[in-house]
Amino acid sequence: CREGEQGLWALQLCASEDGVRPTAIVGPALPFRILARAPAPPSQPQLVATGASPNGAVLTVTWDMAVDEGGAFRGVVANELSLWVLDEYRRGGAPLQIFSGEDVWPPYQLDGLELSTQYVMQVRCCSQAGSSSWSSCSKALRTPDPPPRDLGCPEVLDVSKTAATVRWMTSEVEVDGYEIM
Q1: Which of 1, 2, 19, 158 gives a 20 to 30 Å CA spacing to 9?
Q2: DSSP code of residue 114
Q3: Cβ contacts of residue 59 below 8 Å, gap of 6+?
Q4: SS3 for 68-113, per residue?
Q5: Pick from 142, 102, 103, 147: which is nearest to 121 by CA?
């Protein structure tokens, strides 16, 4: 088989004495075309890692590409990822953002998200024959909590030989404990 212009292929039959090496061409080449269809959907997005950057929270997700690419000339050429804040998704709202293009491949990193927020997402793959249906929705993916803020200088209220009373500002996020040095 040989691929030509616009997805048209040619099949050439050949005779062979050993089934491996052709000895003679049999008849003219037979042209045919593969009728492509949209690919099957990829798997549900899965969380790989969470983190933070100067831009905000970071989620890294992955998904399995569709086994059935639909037979398109070049296969899957791009992906789309739709991102919702969980509460908006539950209300049936529009995606917060859709990432698309040739650079959207697993694993994919989403940067600049809000801290302490739950997100869900779906992905689909695209070929020259069209786009797949959307994958099933991911489980809720939570971005990290913000770090505790600087609590400022402590204020000493009372001092005795065996104890001291000290006060400082409280953190806006839950803190497991304080270390006084």
Answers
A1: 19
A2: P
A3: 47, 49, 50, 109, 110, 113, 119, 141, 143
A4: CCCCCCCCCCEEEEEEEEHHHHHCCCCCCEEEEECCCCCCEEEEEE
A5: 142
Taking the CB of residue 121, how many other CB atoms lie within 10 A of it? 28
The amino acid sitting at 153 is C
Of 89, 6, 15, nearest to 45 by C-alpha is 89
Strand pairing partners for 88?
none
For 110, list phi and psi in degrees, rounded to 5: -105, 120
pLDDT at 2 over 60: no
Question: Between the CA of residue 82 and those of 46, 119, 162, what are the distances in Å?
Answer: 14, 10, 60
User: What digits encode the pLDDT tens for the residues 75-129?
Assistant: 778 889 999 999 999 999 999 999 998 899 999 999 999 999 999 999 999 888 8
